[in-house]
Amino acid sequence: MALEPASEGDIQLAQRIISAAERHDVPALKVLLKEGSANVQDPTATVATSPIHAAIAACGKAEDGKEADESAIQTVNLLLQNGAIWNDLNKEDDTPGCIALKLGQKKIYELMVEAGVRAELLFSKMEALGLGGNDEAEEEEEVAGEEQPAAKKQKVSEEEAKPVETVDEKVLDDVSLDNKVYLKSQLRYKPGILLDESDNAVMMDWETQIMQRHAETIAPKKGLKLMNVGHGMGIVDTAIQTHEPSEHHIIEAHPQVHQRLREQGWYEKPNVIIHEGRWQDILPKLVEQGVVLDGIYYDTFAEDYNALKEFFSEYVIQLLAPEGKFGWYNGLGADRQICYDVYTRVAEMDLYEAGFDTVWEDIQVPPTLRGSKEWEGTRRPYWTIDIYRLPINTFVK
Ligand SMILES: C[S@@+](CC[C@H](N)C(=O)[O-])C[C@H]1O[C@@H](n2cnc3c(N)ncnc32)[C@H](O)[C@@H]1O
């Protein structure tokens, strides 16, 4: 969050920092940043802006022959080194990276993606070490929280929920903020869409092509042992069936989805084994039984990135055959291009650390989706970008 200066002197310093950033005056900025913060705002400005937003906006459009020069790049780097926040929002709801993207400033955009990856990796390491409570980390989380309006599927991290504690369960105004609360909430199956109790779209049928491709990538031939986690509208499971698996495990935790599986005859299908419950409870048992699978697909709801990470680094490594394929729904931060790019890269790095190589396939999302009627009646669009990056993971050789 940008800091608003209090005194007249602070305001002047803020104005000088923003002005030096805007002029890409690196020597002046170096001196000024010894006294002031890289995250100041000028409260007297008509459109409040942080120094890094100002520095990037001042680059202009690359297509007008204004490709960012060395001093612009140095300015952005200097501000980042001094703590400028990669996903800070200005009044237009743009991060610095969003501005770079709009201006076609590829080098600057790449700097912002790299900064986002560094910040998120550091933040997750601090969380793992129990150091998430310091001011800077909290500040970062607050900004990242504002970055994730998309409720569907993997959220980047837990948003600030507004829980009202009752005796033993939370009441949330958005059930997707807590997996266990979601699993107790009412679902509605409507034509082409599955909604939760808070009107979040859990699944939509525009994703059919994506699901079919995921099924193909985890099942390159017939007769394999496959597993899908999260049945939803059954799109991926229907696609998996066309590859005639010798075993087709489905893990699903929501009672209404079990009911639907029953109504649609999934329990009677040959080779289909339905595991009712959360994957967190089912998978340790499958590991204990020594189950080995040729393909695993993961697409749940109301779970954050940490759940996905736990899924592959704790379980996929134990359940997947040496030549097996792992796929997962890549919806991380899909309502903002820079968040999608940052988290796609973070996931790739964490997957590598867990022992997986990743191949990405780009799939064009229907161009008519953005702002379309498909989102009517939903809480918010969880997808606003053009390309779905489909991951295919195999063990590192
Ligand atoms: C986005 S939908 C899956 C859509 C599916 N890929 C399709 O093609 O229709 C997510 C599903 O995961 C289920 N789910 C959520 N959390 C779960 C958990 N912890 N364990 C198992 N299933 C879960 C939800 O109830 C929902 O049915």
Structural class: alpha/beta
First-to-last CA distance: 43 Å
| Number of helical stretches of at least 4 residues | 14
Low-confidence stretches: 134-142, 144-151, 158-168
Overall 3D shape: elongated
- Extended strand count: 12
CATH architecture verdict of the largest domain: 3-Layer(aba) Sandwich
Look at the structure and give the mean pLDDT. Answer: 90
Strand order in the sheet with the most strands: 8-7-6-9-10
The biggest beta sheet is recorded as:
5 strands, parallel
CATH superfamily of the largest domain: Vaccinia Virus protein VP39
Looking at how many chains there are and whether they match, the oligomeric state comes to: single chain
Number of domains: 2
Order of helices and strands: HHHHHHHEEHEEEHEHEHEHEHEHEE
Q: In words, what does this structure look like?
A:
It is an enzyme of class 2 (transferase). This is Arginine N-methyltransferase 2. Keywords: Cytoplasm, Methyltransferase, Nucleus, S-adenosyl-L-methionine, Transferase. Its EC number is 2.1.1.-. Belongs to the class I-like SAM-binding methyltransferase superfamily. RMT2 methyltransferase family. This protein has a five-stranded parallel β-sheet with strand order 8-7-6-9-10, with helices on both faces. A three-stranded antiparallel β-sheet has the order 3-4-5, with no helix packed on it. It has two domains: 8-142, Ankyrin repeat-containing domain (Serine Threonine Protein Phosphatase 5, Tetratricopeptide repeat), CATH 1.25.40.20; 188-395, 3-Layer(aba) Sandwich (Rossmann fold). It is elongated and about 75 Å long. Strand 4 (193-195) and strand 5 form a beta hairpin. Helix 9 (208-218) packs across helix 10. It starts with 7 loop residues before the first helix and ends with a strand. It is built from 14 helices and twelve strands. By secondary structure, it is α/β, with parallel strands linked by helices. Residues 153, 179, 202-203, 211, 229-236, 251-254, 257, 278-280, 299-303 line the site of S-adenosylmethionine.
